[in-house]
């Protein structure tokens, strides 16, 4: 089966939620809490989920994915396909047609020039676009009229739904960002903190790493939506306090990412004010191994860059030993219960793209010790391994969260059992996932030896996600420390296979290539050490209607349909 035919079956008509309110703004205020606070409202300058999802309330893509992983139109009337003429027969272009009459929140019309500008913005040299993989293979963009956008690719693109699709790749206003191209992108604070958008809400005040206040967009395309006149987005705290604020005290209406032990969530639900919701997608908690030297002794600009390989982790045997020492089944039991599954894959779903590899599941402490012996790391007098006068010591960082700190403690002990000394560091999630190029504590800058976090990708096809680990996607000073290839993995064979995936249409062949790419960065190189395939767990108040959990796009994807149950 050709992929273009399969995709026709995946394209769905926009589902219209039942209208539960007669006019915009009649349901007062809705309160959302994300314990990882947004630090910017421009998803092109941050790979942090909390920034991308907060932004999705304001800026929107041409199309996105619904709760079933199906493509649905947002700023366009239909999804382009080969069958309807929107995708060229040779698969080298896709033509989008904007809805008629779409307005920015400032009342000006959205045009094809805005869409083209968005691509120019992300593809600009020295811009450090966090979503650059979305624009891979884009050769040019033509705008023959104010509503038509023709995206041309440098080779056949069997899956052309990346740029301007999903919450990670929204359209931004050319007039607002025109002076923010390239290296100037980070300097446009007003635009980055208060983007003009097409979404249901408009930013009225943004306090980074704290609170965002919004009001209904008076120019939103559906005159009956949103039901809420205002929105309060609180950031910070921890997952436990966020869960309690919805399910026990009823202070908030929606709490995101309740990364808590299952018994804790169950106890909170007994409070009677709210309901937990969950679903599996592609969210994987993993450890990233730094392939470069993060030592503070190196000059700034060379630290954690390809100029200096990691003095310990560059050895595959070492990385493999660290993975073998981990008991993933116990991590799931302690951290997630039924909302987690041990995994060896970076891409755990959809099933057709998931590698059958399970080699990492069983803990093997003795095997790990033997590998370290083979690598020349011998146990010293104090139980810590040494080689050539250097101690085997690692700095292990992650964001501040009870489950993650439990994982750190367990993994530190398992690594101690094989002779590794580990220093633990946890960083506030607002900073860790914030993407500030001036901060030494972002997950992209990676000034540590290993780090742990989770993320996922828009939609059901992993091409762009796997494409983030090509050599050029490594964060470095010249990219403003943006890029998802945080461990600076670089293998020309991997890059070639990513390019082949981009040109492959047969679904079975795509699945074969995706599985191989996954195994190259996990099983074969172990630069990424997957731990847990995590279910998404959030909660909403019992008085909040219209919520549909979506694990394939922004969790706030349908906030325009939310309403107050009366």
Describe the structure.
- The structure is a single chain.
- By secondary structure, the protein is an alpha+beta fold.
- It has a domain at 280-381 and 390-535: Dipeptide-binding Protein, domain 3.
- Helix content is 24%, strand content 20%.
- It contains 15 helices and 21 strands.
- Strands 1, 7, 8, 9, 10, 11, 12, 16, 17, 18 and 19 form an 11-stranded mixed beta sheet that branches. A 3-stranded antiparallel beta sheet has the order 4-6-5, with helices on one face. A 3-stranded antiparallel beta sheet has the order 13-14-15, with no helix packed on it.
- Strand 5 (138-145) and strand 6 (148-153) form a beta hairpin.
- Helix 6 (239-247) runs parallel beside helix 7 (262-269) and helix 14 (492-503) runs antiparallel to helix 15 (507-524).
- The longest helix has 18 residues, at 507-524.
- The chain is globular, with a radius of gyration of 23 Å.
Number of continuous helical runs = 15
Largest sheet: 11 strands, mixed
Computed Rg: 23 Å
Report the CATH architecture of the domain at 280-381 and 390-535: Roll
Mean pLDDT, to the nearest integer, reads 93
Helix content: 10-25%
Please render the helix and strand layout as text.
Layout: H1 3-10, E1 29-34, H2 49-55, E2 63-65, E3 71-73, E4 93-97, H3 112-123, E5 138-145, E6 148-153, H4 174-177, H5 189-193, E7 201-206, E8 211-216, E9 230-235, H6 239-247, E10 254-255, H7 262-269, E11 274-289, H8 316-324, H9 328-335, E12 340-342, H10 365-374, E13 378-379, E14 385-387, E15 390-391, E16 393-399, H11 402-417, E17 421-427, H12 429-432, E18 450-455, H13 463-467, H14 492-503, H15 507-524, E19 528-541, E20 544-545, E21 563-564
